[in-house]
Amino acid sequence: DTGVSQDPRHKITKRGQNVTFRCDPISEHNRLYWYRQTLGQGPEFLTYFQNEAQLEKSRLLSDRFSAERPKGSFSTLEIQRTEQGDSAMYLCASSPSTSPEQFFGPGTRLTVL
Amino acid sequence: KNEVEQSPQNLTAQEGEFITINCSYSVGISALHWLQQHPGGGIVSLFMLSSGKKKHGRLIATINIQEKHSSLHITASHPRDSAVYICAVRLSRNYQLIWGAGTKLIIKP
Hints:
heterodimer, A: mainly beta, four-stranded antiparallel beta sheet, 11 strands, 50% strand, B: mainly beta, six-stranded mixed beta sheet, 61% strand
């Protein structure tokens, strides 16, 4: 399968714990995006990478959130000291430099108890 | 007021009906996307357009840049079309996608 993959697909954690999600984009895509989607809402932009550079960050990305893409390939999104309000679907997408069309992964559903 | 508004929020129709979902936006955009999201969260890009009209199978998407409005049409709807359809706009100034809240479509057999 050569699509965008995300791991894990589901994560249940207790409030206060740290969690890390991984996204593997389509291999030739240099742009990578993270979005968050809460129940019944459309996705909200979190952050954007071009290669290894994090070019944009949403105000939604509080200091408890950090994203990296160290080698310009896969990316990780870490949430520290999770809160119940962090419960959401975290979506990753990638796009090539030649087109703004984004291809989405299956998402990681986070539940914070 | 949200920057991207979709209507209706929910739509239930009988198999075979012609479906229209509308999207209006208030910001400058470089492109508009229509996406489909099935239960479980997977998102599939249906169309990306910046002008005119695109057709793929039974799906048609149109955009009017002057009126800042786009429509997604489904002809001869089928129960497998049941999903959430989301309109998202790509801002002119950066790469962000601003998303509508989605339209939940249910097609009854």
